[in-house]
Structures are given as C-alpha cells and as structure tokens.
C-alpha cells in the first residue's frame, strides 16, 4: 500500500495566473494544495509577485518544472538548479518534480522530447538526477510523460521508467492521463502498466484532460475535462496502491474557477470513497491475506 512521502494531502490544483486573483480572494473550497512551474514565477514581482507570495504563505505548494531537461545531451544547467533551490526555499515548497524527458540541446526546444529507452540513457539520466538532488538538498520526483515517438528504443517504456527511478533513487510523479494517452497511442494495457510502477515511490499524482485527434491518437493538452476512462484508471490506482495526493492540471481553455473546483471536488470524493473502503475489515483481510 501507498506510504506517503510528500507532505501534502488531499486534492490539488495547478495554479494559473488567469485565476490567481480569484483564488487569493476566495480560495476554492475543495483545493488542499497548489502546484506551479517555478520557471513561471522565479523573479516575478509587482502585483502578481505579491499575490503569489500571499498564496504560498497560506497554502501548501508543490512545484512541477518545465526546463530542467533532465535527459538532455547538453550539460546540466547548474546555475538554473541553484535558482530553483532558492525559489523552493523562499516559498517553502513541499516537493519539486520534473518530466522524464528533455527540452534542450544547444538551445531550448520548447517541447517535451522523448528520451531513448536504452541502458545508456538510464545511466545518463540517473547521474543528472543525483547531481540535481545534491544541489537542491532534497529528493525530486520524475513524471511519466506522454510521447509520440520512441527513437532508439531498446526496452519497454515501463522498464525504462523503473530503471531510472531505481538507478537514481528518486521518486515518481504519477500521471494517470499520460498512461491512458500512451496506452492508446502505443497500444498497451493501461492497467497493466500502472500496476508495474513502484507505488512506494509515488509522491503525488496528476490527472488531466486530453484531445482525441483520431481513434488511435490522443494528444496530451491539459485543455479539456477529465474523461471517464482516466477517472477509472485513477480509481484503480487508489484501489491498488492506496489513496495518494492527486492534482488537477488545466493549462488551456481554462474554465471559471468554480468549474475547476468542482473537478477537484470530484477527486476529493473519490479519495474519500476509497479511504472508506480501505478501512473496512474485509478489505484489510484481503490486503494482508
């Protein structure tokens, strides 16, 4: 069963500037914690900077980065990692996560590029993760990402993810929408993939919407409501691993804050249902028998 390793609880929401003022004035009732990309807030002053500071002083925050580029062939940007550390320390950020991908080579590529699923890439990424953790003086978590091509693939995606986590000894940001998207695009069983992940490394979870380009192609947009198969996969994760903190991502086509709060409330309701089930004597007998 899940053993909490991230000091946040409940259901969270990715904080966006579009509704920052509204959230600061009247915090959405279902939200227990918030997430931001540090790159979007490092060095921000003025009205937005003041509003953001009031939020981090009042609520638990986690960070999900965009440009660490952990799998890049270029040298690690250590000055950037030091700036991230200062930001995490100033705002009392509870956890720092990044994408298991890369976003730069000689310059910024402005996309999440797939890392080749090879033994050499495992060692390369793990070395960089360990260096980042040394600089930050804290563990980080890597997210299983959506991808649309697998260049140089020598092992399965699940084998690559698990090898990186073990070699680097870092944690996992579980994204159930990415599992669902990849299962459609690459033709594997989403439940089987989920169950092969190391539950003991999960710090929290992402859930989001996506775009159906074709029957066999999904695009991870974070621009729509979460669909039933993704909710079902989240519920399976709770049933399998125990209830973990879960955050709603919405980056485009952002609806009113009340609508986002309703979707976060749905996460909280699912969490409550599964906690109640897992407290029943018959569940405990099955789990330990």
The class by helix and strand makeup works out as alpha/beta
Shape: globular
CATH architecture: Alpha-Beta Barrel
CATH superfamily: Divalent-metal-dependent TIM barrel enzymes
Instruction: Give the strand order of the largest sheet, numbering strands 1, 2, ... along the chain.
Output: 1-2-3-4-7-8-9-12
CATH topology title: TIM Barrel
What are the segments in which pLDDT stays under 50 over at least 5 consecutive residues?
285-289
Taking all residues together, what is the mean pLDDT?
91
Could you describe the largest sheet, including whether it forms a barrel?
Answer: 8 strands, parallel, barrel
Beta content comes to: 15-25%
Q: How many helices does DSSP assign?
A: 10
Overall number of structural domains: 1
Q: Helix amount, in percent?
A: 40-55%
What is the straight-line distance between the termini?
13 Å
Number of strands: 12
- Name the CATH class: Alpha Beta
Describe this structure in words.
The protein is α/β, with parallel strands linked by helices. It has a single domain, classed as Alpha-Beta Barrel (TIM Barrel). 43% of the residues lie in helices and 17% in strands. The protein is built from 10 helices and 12 strands. The protein has helices at residues 20-25, 46-58, 78-91, 119-136, 157-168, 176-186, 190-195, 228-241, 257-279, 281-288, and strands at 11-14, 33-36, 61-64, 96-99, 102-104, 108-113, 141-143, 171-175, 202-207, 211-214, 217-219, 246-248. The strands form 3 sheets. Strands 1-2-3-4-7-8-9-12 form an 8-stranded parallel barrel. α3 links the parallel β3 and β4. α4 (119-136) runs parallel beside α5. The chain is globular and about 50 Å long.
């Amino acid at each position: 069963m899940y053993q909490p390793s991230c000091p946040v609880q409940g259901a969270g929401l990715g904080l966006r500037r579009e509704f920052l003022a509204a959230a600061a004035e009247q915090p959405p009732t279902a939200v227990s914690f918030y997430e931001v990309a540090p790159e979007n807030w490092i060095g921000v002053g003025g009205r937005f900077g003041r509003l953001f500071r009031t939020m981090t002083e009042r609520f638990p925050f986690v960070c999900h980065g965009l440009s660490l580029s952990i799998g890049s062939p270029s040298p690690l940007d250590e000055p950037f990692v030091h700036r991230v550390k200062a930001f995490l320390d100033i705002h009392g950020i509870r956890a720092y996560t990044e994408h298991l991908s890369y976003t730069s080579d000689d310059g910024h590529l402005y996309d999440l590029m797939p890392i080749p699923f090879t033994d050499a890439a495992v060692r390369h990424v793990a070395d960089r993760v360990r260096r980042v953790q040394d600089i930050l003086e804290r563990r980080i978590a890597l997210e299983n990402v959506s991808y649309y091509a697998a260049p140089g693939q020598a092992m399965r995606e699940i084998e690559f993810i698990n090898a990186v986590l073990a070699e680097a000894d870092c944690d996992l940001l579980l994204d159930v929408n990415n599992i669902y998207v990849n299962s459609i695009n690459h033709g594997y069983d989403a439940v089987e993939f989920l169950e092969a992940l190391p539950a003991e490394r999960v710090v929290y979870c992402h859930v989001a919407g996506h775009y159906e380009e074709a029957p066999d192609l999904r695009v991870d947009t974070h621009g729509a409501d979460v669909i039933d198969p993704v909710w079902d996969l989240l519920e399976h994760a709770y049933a399998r691993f125990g209830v973990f903190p879960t955050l709603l991502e919405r980056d485009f086509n952002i609806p009113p804050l009340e609508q986002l709060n309703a979707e976060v409330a749905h996460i909280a309701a699912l969490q409550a249902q599964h906690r109640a089930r897992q407290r029943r004597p018959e569940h405990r007998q099955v789990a330990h028998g």
